[in-house]
Amino acid sequence: MADLIQLGKSDYIKANVSNSHNDAVAFEVKLAKDLTISALKSKLEILTGGSAGTMKVELYKGDKCLGTLDNNDAQLGYYASCDGLRLHVIDTFASFCFDAPVEKFELSKDQYDKRSDSVRHYLKQNRLGKYNEEEMQQIEEKKRQQAEEVQKRAELCVVDKRCEVTVQGNPRRRGTIKYNGPLEGKSGIFIGIQYDEPLGKNNGSVNGKVYFVCPPNYGGFVSPLSVTVGDFPPEDFNLDEEL
Q1: What is the DSSP letter of 11?
Q2: Within a 10 A sphere around the Cβ of 48, how many other Cβ atoms?
Q3: Which of 24, 123, 134, 230 is 20 to 30 A from 88 via CA?
Q4: What domain of life is recorded for the organism (predicted)?
């Protein structure tokens, strides 16, 4: 795979499971890293109602597809070893595609709804994913609370205020807020920071659009949830001082 996740220390990962006939994330699972892909498909067969022998499993990080778990003898940890990923199960039984000139066989929505051996039927029968009203209400409530928290934190991020930025996998960085608002082509609110040190990724521009101006590698854009506003003086990195 071209973009493997770095191995972590835990023996397990937590991942979301989605499938080709359910456009919402259905449920979260905890999986051992030493689980073979063949055994993983058997577990997903129980969860999704698909067939392990014909299912295709893709690995996603956000909306980015990292690749296909196509080696049945490999362990899950070879492909992914951190939380927050998504396993997307493709129900190849419901849609067969042959080489041209044979046409692609597809089921209409009504035909698929009538099947008793489909992933959708299994989810309905077992009240899983979007067919579990209580679970979906919890998911929506969690999204609502997170959106409120993002808005609340964004209101504190006043331009020219000092701040400290904490992003998982990166050192804490201090800087000054220079932008608060949307980024073209992305959803949500972003906070533009000019860091005290060249620990950023840009100069205040994204994809050619200027949001603020700072020296190269001093700028960055993060979620309001990663920003703590306060009296954070620039850190002293002077290594020439006498100890």
Answers
A1: S
A2: 29
A3: 134
A4: Eukaryota
